[in-house]
Specification:
Blueprint lengths: L12 H10 L4 H14 L6 E6 L5 H8 L2 E7 L2 H10 L6 E5 L7
Parallel strand pairs: 1-2, 2-3
């Protein structure tokens, strides 16, 4: 068996592909998480959300179903492309390549 060493970084497309291979969120789990966030913070629609490290955009899509618009940011080109594909039917979602440290 050959073992390949990989230095993981969030910016690396290769790292993201490896991460996604082993870590998948199911839509039901995302819906539960978003519902709990809305209840916990007593959010009222219409409203806006910022998803820092938005990944594949699943949370943005779920928030939209509850009447929220959103902006998702991530630093991986690969993930941004995948999130844009996933959110293509969302009317009120925007995906931006950005580091959290760049938010002002």
């Amino acid at each position: 068996m050959k073992i390949k060493k990989h230095v993981f970084t969030w910016e690396s497309d290769e790292s993201q592909k490896i991460f996604l291979k082993y870590h998948r969120r199911v839509p039901e789990q995302v819906q539960i998480e978003v519902k709990k966030i809305i209840e916990c913070f007593q959010l009222k629609a219409p409203g806006k959300v910022l998803d820092v490290g938005c990944g594949l955009g699943y949370h943005l899509m779920a928030f939209e179903q509850y009447g929220f618009s959103g902006v998702g940011i991530d630093i991986s080109d690969y993930i941004i492309k995948e999130a844009m594909k996933n959110c293509k039917d969302c009317s009120f979602c925007e995906i931006i390549k950005m580091r959290a440290s760049e938010i002002h």
